[in-house]
Each structure stands twice: as structure tokens, then as C-alpha cells.
Design brief:
This protein has ten helices and twelve strands. It is α/β, with parallel strands linked by helices. The protein folds into two domains: 151 residues, DHBP synthase; 81 residues, no CATH class. The structure holds threonylcarbamoyladenylate and magnesium ion.
Length: 322
């Protein structure tokens, strides 16, 4: 199947595209799904054959479970068999939005989706196109980021087409992702929240709602989520990092600062905020890869607070060489 006929879409999907997406998903095909974080590669989460196509298309190892996306609060019960009261608090505070909750799984969710785990990751995205599609379907969507496994996540429709055009029935147009890094993943063991992946909802925002510190488990030695692997989000181009506020130690080397007013094209952030840097991060990494064998690029990290933590997490993994 080809997406060529969709190449000239506007910044938002029209009715005909949505109808085509619904039909393709019902038939077990894959659809590129815009969300506020990154574009997803979506399939019917209740159809194991369709879900298997996601793993094939991404060359994703089967031990890496998928996130299930829902369009309304009442759909949680189709996916999770139990919602602890503490999880409910986070749903009320952050859904729809870039927060994924790991909850006990319903038997109807195929084991392939959860890599055999008894838990399932669920989120309600905030993007209007994603919500409209999800609300029009009578099944939830399993959707990892729409990139080959281990590579930089896509934040525009074109990014998805660049690598996965032959794998999808179509990619819905949703403009550039407004958040730009993936959702924050929160699990609950013995009723206590724990962050498994830093993302679009900051640790500070979670802790403000919880009223207490929340532990993180982002280690790379025993990953609970492959986003925790030491090398992930990785472009082919070699990257070196410097701490926020420091100068580049290699004179003359290409140096992308976090923010410099005089040279916006050599800045991660367009205005000095971490929000802007998050939106631009994956696009910048992809642009560096237009010259994969170019000289190694030095990148100044974000301040280690708020969204800056998620940005730095991605930068460290993007810079890691195995
Ligand atoms: O923002 C996002 O979350 C995007 C958009 C498309 O929604 N999706 C995304 O999916 O980032 P993906 O597959 O790239 O990352 C999902 C992460 C994986 O690292 C996976 O291991 C973790 O979620 N995960 C899924 N189910 C899990 C579970 N039951 N327990 C722990 N981690 C889980
Ligand atoms: Mg991913």
C-alpha cells in the first residue's frame, strides 16, 4: 500500500482521510497517528495480527511492549482491569495529555501488546486528530512512536513518511507535534507511583499533584521500558554533550547551544524555554543526520528541571555509542 495520494495534505486531516484511516484500522492495517508528543504507528490493539505488523514495520523486538491509546475515560475499563485510586488522581489531572499509566491488564488485550506482562501502558492523547479518530473507533489503538526501533522519534508527518511510507496505509496530518518528546510513563507498584520514563509531563508537575516526591527508575542496565536503553533516539551522526551553561571544549567543532539569541539556527530552543527545545529536539537530530558522516556535533544540554530533564534524557541516549 502507498501513502502517495496523501502527500499533499493540509495541516489537519480532513474528513475523507479520517474515514480512510478508520477503514484501514478496521482491516488490520497500520496508520500514522499524530499526537501532541510524537507521531505514532497505530493498529487495532485488540487484533494480534495487526499488532504484529507494528513490530515488523519498526523491527521492534517483541520484548518491548506498546502503549494503548484511548479516546475517552470510560474506555480505560476495556484495557485495564483495575484502576488504583492514586492512578485516578493522575488521570483526572493530566488526561488527555502526555502521561502514560501502567495498570493491570484486561485479558482482552493480546499478550503481544504487553510483551507477556500482566500490566498494560495506557494513555489518552491530547491531539484533536488523535482524539477524533479514537472516539470514532470501537477499539483502542496500540501505537509506539512511528520510527524504526532505536531511531529518533517523528514529530511531523513527513518524518513518518521518510522512513515508514511503505508500511502504513496512510499518515494522518496533524502538523508539528506541540510537545515534541514522548509521554511520561508512570507505573504503580503497591499503590505507589514511580516514573519509568521522563517525558511531556514534568516530574515537578506530577509531584505537585501527588503532594510528595515520586521516585524514578530510569536506569539502563535493567530496562523496564526500552526507552530506558542506554542507546535510543539515536541518529547516525556522532554527538557529544556539554553541561548546560558550559562552553564547547573542542575549538572550531560544530556546537549547538541550548539557546543563543544571535544564532537561533544553532540553538536547540528558539526562545530560551525548555518547551521550545522539546518541540525542536527530534527535528534537529534528524537534520544532523542529513550529513551522517559529518564532523561530530557538540550539543549543550538543557537546564536539568521541568521538561529539561526529558530533553537531557533523550540527548544522553542519542549521544550514547554502543
Ligand atoms: O508519547 C508517547 O508515549 C508516544 C505516542 C505515540 O503516544 N508513544 C511512545 O511509544 O513513545 P514507544 O513504544 O516508543 O514507547 C513506549 C514505552 C516503551 O519503552 C515500553 O517499554 C513502555 O512504553 N511500556 C509499554 N508497556 C509497558 C508496561 N506494561 N510496563 C512498563 N513499560 C511499558
Ligand atoms: Mg519510541
Amino acid at each position: 500500500m502507498t501513502s502517495a495520494s496523501y502527500l499533499c495534505g493540509s495541516m489537519h486531516s480532513d474528513h475523507a482521510e479520517l474515514t480512510a484511516a478508520i477503514a484501514a484500522l478496521r482491516d488490520g492495517h497500520l496508520v500514522g497517528l499524530p499526537t501532541e508528543t510524537v507521531y505514532g504507528l497505530a493498529a487495532n490493539a485488540l487484533n494480534a495480527v495487526a499488532v504484529a505488523r507494528i513490530f515488523e514495520a519498526k523491527k521492534r523486538p517483541h520484548f518491548d511492549p506498546l502503549i494503548v491509546h484511548i479516546g475517552k475515560r470510560s474506555d480505560v475499563d476495556l484495557v485495564a482491569r483495575e484502576v488504583p485510586p492514586v492512578a485516578e488522581v493522575f488521570m483526572n489531572a493530566f488526561w488527555p495529555g502526555p502521561l502514560t499509566l501502567v495498570l493491570p491488564k484486561q485479558p482482552a488485550i493480546p499478550d503481544l501488546v504487553t510483551s507477556g506482562l500482566d500490566s498494560v501502558a495506557i494513555r489518552m492523547p491530547q491531539h484533536p486528530v488523535a482524539l477524533e479518530l479514537l472516539q470514532a473507533l470501537d477499539f483502542p489503538l496500540a501505537a509506539p512512536s512511528a520510527n524504526p526501533f532505536g531511531y529518533v522519534s517523528p514529530t511531523t508527518r513527513q518524518h513518518v513518511l521518510d522512513q515508514l511510507a511503505n508500511e502504513v496505509a496512510l499518515v494522518l496530518e496533524g502538523g508539528s507535534c506541540s510537545v515534541g518528546v514522548e509521554s511520561t510513563i508512570l507505573s504503580f507498584s503497591e499503590g505507589q507511583p514511580m516514573v519509568l520514563r521522563l517525558g511531556g509531563i514534568s516530574l515537578e508537575a506530577l509531584e505537585a499533584v501527588h503532594g510528595r516526591p515520586i521516585p524514578t527508575q530510569l536506569s539502563s542496565s535493567q530496562p523496564h521500558a526500552p526507552g530506558q536503553l542506554a542507546s535510543h533516539y539515536a541518529p547516525a551522526r556522532a554527538i557529544r554533550l556539554v553541561a548546560h551553561g558550559e562552553e564547547c571544549p573542542a575549538p572550531g567543532a560544530p556546537f549547538l547551544r541550548f539557546y543563543q539569541k544571535e544564532q537561533p539556527e544553532w540553538s536547540l530552543s528558539a526562545d530560551g524555554t525548555t518547551g521550545s527545545a522539546a518541540t525542536r529536539l527530534f527535528g534537529v537530530l534528524r537534520r544532523l543526520d542529513e550529513e551522517p558522516d559529518g564532523p561530530e556535533v557538540w550539543i549543550e544540554k538543557a537546564p536539568e528541571a521541568g521538561l529539561g530533564r526529558a530533553i537531557n534524557d533523550r540527548l544522553v541516549r542519542a549521544a550514547h555509542r554502543v
